[in-house]
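Listing S7. Sequence submitted for prediction.
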Amino acid sequence: MPQRPKRLTPSRGPMDLFGSEVRRYRTLAGLSLAQLGEQIPYAPSTIGDIERGQSGCDRGFAEDCDRVLDTREALAHLHDGLFDGRSAAFPEYFAQWPEHESGAEVLRSYQTMLVDGLLQTPAYADVLLYGDQTKVQGRLDRQAILTREEPIPPRLVCLLPETVLWHRVGTAETMREQLLQLADAISPLVSVQIIPDGAPHSGHAGSFTIARLPGGELIAYCEGEPHGRVVDGRSEIERLNERFMDLSTYALPTDQSAALIRQTAEERWKS
């Protein structure tokens, strides 16, 4: 007996609404996921994820569905209205964070395994996002907040364990380029501080970023399983603040951190 399709909840957000419309038009056309996948360049599993609001998509997906499902460009029009080329780049659980990030006066970031997305090179991000250019561009677009003229860019303070410098993402050249850019990013508005390997600290509970908004309000984004989440509970944010302050006591000053980053780039990742 075939599994009953999951009930969709389009009121939950734009990705859910778009996905529910894809399923509605597909059902009206009498096509299964597999049959639609045979006529457009997307796997049935990918189409299913989009229908359930679990994955974003670019406008090309909407255009392909419009063509096969004879929707008179309804899905492309809906995609434009919902995403305007931006929101589809982010999964639903993350979609609210770029707005908080953009409005922040100060960002405090601790990353356990990877360079913070605001400081990633295109090649490094491309590997992490499996070549999905919509998501890569979305990540790179977020970085514009660090170089904008108005409003004043946020102050970014980023703490990284030294092991992040050793964790290979892509080729050796990708890593070398990423580390050199990371060191170059250090400025009066951007601090990158490395926690030396072996220093005892409380950062093993996971990556997080705390944003201080105008007026002093704090909001955070925490990585987790099966995915991350935005946190605004006062007690939880206080705990994150305390953890960040504790971690910072183990970190090298920015000048020593920059020297260590460059040394690692040349000694470990130079081809």
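Caption to Listing S7: primary sequence and predicted structure tokens for the chain studied. The first strand starts at residue 106 and ends at 110. DSSP finds twelve helices and six strands in the chain.
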